[in-house]
Design brief:
Layout: E1 2-8, E2 17-23, E3 30-39, H1 42-48, E4 65-72, E5 84-87, E6 90-92, H2 98-101, E7 113-114, E8 134-138, E9 143-144, H3 151-154, H4 160-170, E10 178-182, H5 186-197, E11 201-206, H6 212-218, E12 222-225, H7 229-234, E13 239-244, H8 252-256, E14 259-267, H9 279-283, E15 288-291, H10 297-310, E16 316-319, H11 324-332, E17 339-343
Parallel strand pairs: 10-11, 10-13, 11-12, 13-14, 14-15, 16-17
Antiparallel strand pairs: 1-2, 3-4, 3-8, 3-17, 4-5, 5-9, 6-7
Bound molecules: NADP nicotinamide-adenine-dinucleotide phosphate (NAP) and zinc ion (2 copies).
Length: 348
């Protein structure tokens, strides 16, 4: 067994604190990764705090993992010891349903095996995520990471990156499109970078006036304060797409009104509850609303390769593991620029 040091939520109320556990020895098809950096996603907070229902405690969050391969099983052909590697939101799936075959394992009919808050397939062993010193994962669910990019800024690509890249690609967003990104946090700042990189005209829609200069530096062409009613009125019927990354309860109807005829709101933010949807906001301009969940392994690799080619990484604030509870408090106040990343060396 492999001894692992971690930080865990023991329940929905108390702060995260140290936790030690064992992972199984590296299987024939698995690699062992020494975790170097682990991003902090708002989904970690939702899960730890029970926003989406009861979690499996003790819960070790973290699904934006980058590190170095330190051991490979005897059947491993895709990775070698010493290489950089990444792990995202899931570590297994059924591998035989239509979604798995198509490389969209996140939509697996049997349910993907989450990197945390899941059970290893066919067992009662909980999965533990990236707020830990090391992880073992099947090679088919591990990503190659370029050594050209700053590793700290790569970690958030494994969730915030793919979650925003995937729907923009699915909808073929690019030149000639007016795209609004709603909410400037971890997902939002990656959405701005990708949408601008794909050639769209990007507007940042934010509740935080202090983020205007940053939004523009990230690549947004315009910034609009959603708390100002006159600004909201002036933006009615403006956008082809709105990528909604908001983590807290909000009124979708207000923002749907900003879509043009035939416009689409892409929901990636996953607040625990929502306001009722008014049919008229959709009906009158044939607007749509769609959801999107992370991305499959194939597309995640494509996104990482795109980032290496175009020198795209997340803007991060590196923290020690024991800062995690303050980081959660700050994210709940929309105070993050724009992703906390844990330096796992702080666990040694
Ligand atoms: P984050 O870094 O905390 O950013 C969320 C941003 O939403 C805030 O910075 C803030 O931006 C805005 N916001 C917060 N409360 C708001 C409110 N009441 N009204 C309007 N805007 C508000 O969170 P994140 O890590 O980017 O995650 C965002 C959401 O996506 C979470 O719910 C997370 O669980 C979900 N998620 C979904 C997927 C998926 O596959 N679909 C994947 C990862 C995460 P401003 O200051 O600019 O207003
Ligand atoms: Zn996430
Ligand atoms: Zn499947």
């Amino acid at each position: 067994m492999i001894q692992v040091k971690a930080f865990a939520a023991y329940d929905a109320e108390t702060p995260l604190r140290p936790f030690e556990f064992e992972r199984k020895e590296v299987g024939a098809n698995q690699v062992q990764i020494e975790i170097l950096y682990s991003g902090v996603c708002h989904s970690d907070i939702h899960t730890a705090k029970g926003d989406w229902g009861p979690a499996i405690y003790p819960l070790v969050p973290g699904h934006e993992i980058v590190g170095k391969i330190i051991k490979t099983g005897e059947n491993v052909t895709k990775f070698e010891v010493g290489e950089l590697a990444g792990v995202g939101c899931f570590v297994d799936s059924c591998r035989k349903c239509q979604s798995c075959i198509e490389g969209e394992e996140q939509f697996c009919d049997e349910g993907m095996t989450g990197t945390y808050n899941s059970y290893e397939r066919g067992t009662t062993t909980p999965t533990y995520g990236g707020y830990s010193t090391t992880i073992t994962v099947d090679q088919d669910y591990v990503l190659h990471v370029s050594d050209k990019l700053d590793l700290k800024g790569v970690a958030p690509l494994l969730c915030a990156g793919i979650t925003t890249y995937s729907p923009l690609r699915y909808l073929k967003v690019g030149k000639g499109h007016k795209v609004a990104v709603l909410g400037l946090g971890g997902l939002g700042h990656m959405a701005v970078k990708f949408a601008a990189s794909f050639g769209a005209e990007v507007t940042m829609l934010s509740t935080s006036p202090s983020k205007e200069a940053d939004a523009k530096a990230l690549g947004a062409h315009h910034f609009a304060l959603t708390t100002d009613p006159a600004t909201m009125d002036s933006l009615a019927n403006s956008f082809d797409f709105i990528l909604n990354t908001v983590s807290a309860k909000h009124d979708y109807n207000t923002y749907l009104n900003l879509l043009k005829k035939n416009g689409t709101m892409i929901i990636v933010g996953a607040p625990p509850a929502g306001e009722p949807l008014q049919a008229f906001t959709l009906i009158f301009k044939r607007r749509s609303i769609m959801g999107s969940l992370i991305g499959g392994i194939k597309e995640t690799q494509e996104m990482l390769d795109y980032c290496a080619e175009h020198n795209i990484t997340a803007d991060v604030e590196v923290i020690d593991m024991d800062y995690i509870n303050e980081a959660y408090d700050r994210m709940n106040k929309s105070d993050v620029k724009y992703r906390f990343v844990i330096d796992m060396a702080s666990m040694k």
